Amino acid sequence: MSEPAQVRKATGEVVGQSVAWLIIPVYEDWTALAALLHEVNRVRSAWCFNVLVVNDHPLPPPEEWLPEPVEGSLRSIRILSLRRNVGHQRAIALGFCHWLKIDYSGPVVVMDADGEDRPEDILRLLSAAKEDKWRQVIFAARQKRSENFVFRTGYHLYRHLHLWLTGIPVRFGNFSVLSAPHIRALVHQSDLWNHYAAAVIRSKLPYDSIPTSRGHRLAGRSRMNLAGWVSHGLSALSIYSDIAGTRVLLASLAGLACSLLAAGSVGVYAVSTGSPAAYWGVLVALVMTAIFMQIAAATLIFLFMVLSGRASATFIPVRDGIVLIGAETTVWTAAREVNG
After folding, report:
1. Tell me: the pLDDT tens digits for 224-237?
2. Does residue 293 lie in a domain region?
3. What residue numbers bound the domain in which 296 lies?
4. What is the pLDDT of residues 20-40, one digit of tens each?
5. Contacts of 156 (CB under 8 A, 6+ apart)
């Protein structure tokens, strides 16, 4: 991709800064978002930012949720309202679809509204992507997690489960920078409707990550509960359902072969020695054989369902998501604002 477009006035005059878009999904987290945007506005660099807030709620934000920013890095703030709540990942997908209608240059930074994605790391992501000549999607990989012990334990268990089922390590979330060609490819992927980061990996787009630290929530409390976290993790795994199913099938077949071998070996020993303990060993091996046979049969049926489902119609965000996209409202523009 070529160098990102410079900010221009409607007359075509070059102002002199490079422009990036921030796509931020939000669900009733307007106080934290306002604080985040003021932090972004204080970032001083060769970049300025147009902001597209994806309101994942059919109702508009509260009045005067954003005090007018002073002169800084922000050039415009727009709110894209959705017709119903679709969830965090799908809000990102619809934000991409809408962005393609209003701007075909880049880059685009995806970040959360709560402040845990630090504004200063935006510049590091943009710098890494620029050095790579915008070929890769660059993600922010958090070096440490600062949540409570229960969450960290569950997260590490999930990471190991994800690695075992897919062979792909979990290293990053939504915070990332990508370019228009990446977005045009992703919005035609049905996987994007379930999970943004997993869709990037599954689509075989080139990607990399840089280490970052987790910021602190700027206001309020997270609305994500245990069920939400589990659903989020399963959404990522669902994209690799064929890979996960194949790995489970192979593991169950290996277990079946081992249990049959054990049953045969212990059976021969039981017949030759007449030991009651050996006969109990045969019974255990046969039970394990039955369990592995059931797992293999269930997984095989699951795989046939997944593979046959590929022939049926799927939800393509750029084609089908338009019915969920409502109106765009310009909240604020700077004196020197231009539409990137």
Report:
1. 666 777 787 888 88
2. yes
3. 242-309
4. 999 999 999 999 999 999 999
5. none
